[in-house]
Amino acid sequence: MKTINYNTFYRSTIWRSKRKEILKRDNNECQRCKSNGRYSKADCVHHIKFLKDRPDLALVDSNLLSVCDICHNILHPEKLHNNDVVKRVVSEEKW
Ligand SMILES: [Zn+2]
Ligand SMILES: [Zn+2]
């Protein structure tokens, strides 16, 4: 199975420009809050099908969603079980 280096990926120019594109598409608004009738500014772009499961969808628009930090944590329950990895990744770059 194809593996992906997250740090390399999240630092890549192609991801940075894709991320900007998605935030713009979603009007910098958290799409999860929006669907709950609330407004929050989006802080990051989330992979609906997680990057670790579907690296092939890493840059596919339909797999990307602008969300706020709070929603993002909810969307990643695995972070709670994997604190070391999370701290390292989060401090370097938003998911
Ligand atoms: Zn939100
Ligand atoms: Zn995410």
UniProtKB/TrEMBL annotation:
<protein>
    <recommendedName>
        <fullName>Putative HNH nuclease YajD</fullName>
    </recommendedName>
</protein>
<dbReference type="GO" id="GO:0004519">
    <property type="term" value="F:endonuclease activity"/>
</dbReference>
<dbReference type="Pfam" id="PF01844">
    <property type="entry name" value="HNH"/>
</dbReference>
<dbReference type="InterPro" id="IPR002711">
    <property type="entry name" value="HNH"/>
</dbReference>
<keyword id="KW-0540">Nuclease</keyword>
<dbReference type="InterPro" id="IPR003615">
    <property type="entry name" value="HNH_nuc"/>
</dbReference>
<feature type="domain" description="HNH nuclease">
    <location>
        <begin position="17"/>
        <end position="73"/>
    </location>
</feature>
<keyword id="KW-0378">Hydrolase</keyword>
<keyword id="KW-0255">Endonuclease</keyword>
<comment type="similarity">
    <text>Belongs to the HNH nuclease family.</text>
</comment>
